[in-house]
Design a protein that fits this description.
The protein is of the alpha/beta class and about 350 residues long. The protein is built from seven helices and 17 strands.
Amino acid sequence: MKTDLFDYYLPNELIAQEPLPQRDSSRLMVLQRCTKAIEHRRFSEIPHILNEGDCLVLNTTRVFPGRLRFLKRETGGKVELLLVRKVASSRWVCLSKGASLRNGTLLVSACGNLAAQVVEGWSEGRVTVLFTDPHDGHPLRDDEIFACGEIPLPPYIRGDISDSERYQTIYSRNEISAAAPTAGLHFTDELLGKLRERGIRLAEIELAVGMDTFVPVREEEIEKHQIHAEWFEIGEVAAEMINQTRKEGGRIVAVGTTSVRCLETASRDDGIIYPMKGYTSLFILPGYEFKTIDTLLTNFHFPRSTLLALVSAFAGRELIMKAYEMAVREKYRFYSFGDAMLIL
């Protein structure tokens, strides 16, 4: 399948650079898969669009403060590291920006409480780093590393935002994600309360979103792309809630593509969900037969991306590309701080 099939034109000015003042004031494009109808709504209307008895599945992971600023000990050159994946105690794979790095390079942090040594040199923008205490050389725990870090924003955000909590969902808990599950950024406490009052269940799962979510597909045929693996967990309470919803005829509403990967990985062919944890490298492309989810709430995704391929698999490529063309024409806001799409 040609990767070009998932390409579209996006003007740079439509890439949202900061969140709206109110989380749930974003626009919501509603797609009906059966009728192909497209509506333009507001996110705050979602309790009235969903039905009593439906179940929203939320990824409750929190973004860790993985943006770290360093100086090279030898030259003083500036280096920025983005934590991507923990590989062992005190050792992380990082994206590097700034001065060139090679094996053995020593870095000192701007905060003064963190030292880093490159133990595996630069490859495709990545290095493996050992973090230690600069005073006694002892390996550091994750919380000690995070204490010197900042919340990393996506690479297409050109500046900083005044409140880093706006790049966290209001229900986020464990700091295990390198990037936010952005479909959930639109929810407020008040909106979640209205959903509960309407009789809509909220199931909580976890998937550790990696920075690889921003990696474009470079292969001419999308099937040849090596998709990243991500850690996830679906507990007994969430699995029971999801299965009970299906038994009673309610819809399973996946909030974000991360929830889709979790649910479809842990699902039997009949749609029953098992409690499960581990890594998923599930690659969903058009032709995939969904087993569990009935509805998808998501943001607008990169051209030529695995995420755009996933939503195309769920709604049909032609309908999705038509919707994206309309979104550009109607000047929807795109990506992490942008508007949302609900596919019914």
